[in-house]
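Before going further, learn to read the protein records used in this course. Taken together, the tokens spell out the fold as the letters spell out the chain. A record is reproduced here so that you can trace the correspondence yourselves:

***
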Amino acid sequence: MYPKIEILPTKKLIGKRLKMSFLDDCTAELWGSFMPRRKDILHKIGIDLYSMQIFESPPNFKTDATFEKWAAVEVSSFEAVPEGMEAYTLAGGLYAVFLHQGPASAFQKTFQFIFDEWLPNSEYTLDHREHFELLGHKYKNNDPSSEEEIWIPIKRRNPA
């Protein structure tokens, strides 16, 4: 499981956010409030969903560390943001893109590979930008055949 290295352009997102920790995970609550209302969002681009995390600097992945999590879609315009939702500009930049295959419940194994094996042995280091998962048409939540892309913000360890 090795990543593609991609340069992501700036993106406009509209969605909902909650503050949480890995220990006090409110992901189901966040998506439960977002999904019924996503039809209210105008100017959507595609069908992909963004599950985005914004961590403190430097990121702390301990179970009790808090972060902001978003459930969002990409849009072409911030015109008419639905009530109870917010606009967010995803900065873009250099990302390592991993494919997670399997149920969402197996995500921890992929996460450990990325941060304990791949990243320390790569020519990259973590950059302080948004982390996100792209949930496309192959995403099926806890289905064993589910697929999602994991986008990790990176920068070169030793810039040339």
Notes: Residues 38 and 117 are 36 Å apart (CA to CA). The longest helix spans residues 107-118.
